[in-house]
Amino acid sequence: MARSMTASTLFQFLRQKNRLNGLMAASFTLLIVLSLSHHDVRHVAAARLPSFARSTLSPAEPVVARAVNAHFELERQSRRYSPRETLAVALRVASADQPRCAAVEQLLSAFRGGDDRWLSFEQDEQTARRCGGASHAVTDTSRHEVVFVRVEDAVMDSHDGPNCRDCASKLVVVHSPDPRRLEDKKAEMLDTGLAWMVVSDVQSTPTGHFFALRALPLAAREERHLRRFRDLQTRDLPCSEQKFILAEYQRFGFGSSIAMLAGASYYAAMHNRTIIYRPGREFAYLPPNFCESDNLNCYFHGFFHRQHRCLDYVDAEIKSRPVLDPPKAKQGPRQLDPASRDASDPVWLLEWPNPAGFDGTYYDFLRKNGYDVRASLTGLLLLNPTRRVREGVEEHSNGGSKLARYIGAHVRHGDKKLEATLVNFTSYMDEVERRGRASGIRDVFLATDDAEVVERETSEYPLLRFSLQDTLRPKSGFWYDGFRGKQFDLFLSVYTDVAMLSQADIFVGTGSSSMSTLVQALRGVLHKHETYMLDEKGVAREAAMSEAFFD
Question: Which portions of the sequence form the region Disordered (predicted)?
Fold first, then answer.
């Protein structure tokens, strides 16, 4: 008989593998594409899944060392290092003070001992001079950089990640005796940085307090774009001296909207315009009074989501424009006549799916210049969850059994039939079985908006062990309007699907789904390269975003 678990099973699986903190920013890209109403996880097969081995971390180790170990565990997973492989680490103290040196000594002590520790630290000359001890030349091969810095010396751009294809993430540990200053600095770094992930929120140490963030590596061209985009969104000029693009949230799935926003960032940078988003309720999943606005800044850090100071100016400009004649007339700000758009126009309106200028020619331009909207690291910039959201996910979750190696499959039915030909379940499972035989993996995490699939068809595959989140939803899936007014639990539950699909050893999805294509992109960022996508005929193709793409 199948054994029931809660959605926390999957969450704890990620947390105990130290995967979850690193995933928080990236995998929120697809939070609410699937609509789930409660979160029991049901094992369709009777077999008990294996548990992970206990972590080698000791509770007595300093909290700083635990944060660093969590960071390098994420590095090991994304780069496929063996458990006992030694990593060269460049350890740098960015400011000279005794508490920092004490933290360094704690860190070094925690990783000495000759057991199965897999970190080999090298201090650069500056650190050795400040804190004592032997120094080593920090070469290009010492790509795993750990930086300790006082809160007053934490300058944003100097700590952004490296920009090369095979660079590792950088860990920045910020220290202060004042936890409030640290909270403010952390929010500032997450709001204005390029690609940060939270490894540790503010914690106390014997010498004060600290937090730790990972700075992800960025391809050079992506870094240039993100800096340009950030400058446009944050420039300090009178509203009358700027040019804008007004974008409206549409009643589509969250994945589709984020894909549009990522593409729009290139569009804005290309035309030297600031994007402004009108507050909307399409994504107001948070509890009452959780956030003072209904914008995405309720969920995520980043300058992209805050209500822009020039919104009132743009609104006034829009209201002065001519109204379209029926049948093209639409309500609200979309009454702007596209024919009036020209380079001198202070406000352009960005409409989905075919805004003027945002067409095939634009996408051809992106491809010619080596960009792919789906794979854009802009998603990491846009979707760095706030602490309250991360804490909500933690509160939503508690222990359970864990999957070891597994295949992730996203079966999109439901309202997708309104847009594209549905791929039948057999086509998905044929590919899953093929990949399972080649890899020896039998466990399958199934994300679907069609609960009938589980009841009707999974029993036809006795050699596979399925895990999925049980849902009570309409037989046809959720229509677009159905996303509105759902509970915060929906938001947290879908995150579990996103995390599991992004971190699967192998992923099988469909190119007609925004969720699948964005998971595909996230897996490329996270160096998960066994990704297969089915076309409308059910034919699978290899579709990994390879490392070469990010060169």
Answer: 322-342
Phi, psi of 3 (to 5 degrees): -100, 135
CB 349 within 8 A of CB 339: no
- Rounded to whole angstroms, the Cα distance separating 18 from 321 reads 53
Q: Are residues 330 and 283 in the same domain?
A: yes
**CB atoms near residue 237 (< 10 Å):** 9
Rounded to two decimals, what is the model's pTM? 0.68
Q: Tell me, yes or no, whether 391 lies in a domain.
A: no
**Count of other CB atoms within 10 angstroms of residue 49:** 20
What CATH number has the domain bearing residue 141?
3.40.50
The CB density around residue 374, as the number of other CB atoms within 10 Å, is: 20
What is the Cα–Cα distance from 144 to 95, expressed in whole angstroms? Answer: 19
For residue 541, count CB atoms less than 10 angstroms from its CB and return exposed for 0-12, middle for 13-18, buried for 19 or more: exposed
How many domains would you assign to the chain?
3
User: Which string of DSSP letters, residue by residue, matches 192-210?
Assistant: H-SSEEEEEEEEEETTEEE
Question: pLDDT of 180-237, one tens digit each?
Answer: 999 999 988 888 777 788 888 999 887 788 899 988 777 677 777 778 888 898 889 9
Q: Is residue 381 part of a domain?
A: no
Q: Which residues contact 538 (CB under 8 A, 6 or more apart)?
A: 423, 424, 426, 427, 428, 430
Nearest CA-CA partner of 375 in 100, 108, 29: 29
Residues 6+ apart with CB under 8 A from 354: none
Query: Among all chains, which residue has been given the structure tokens 């001198």?
Result: 344
pLDDT in tens, 351-376: 544 444 445 555 566 666 666 555 45
**Where is the domain boundary, 174, 194, 216?**
216
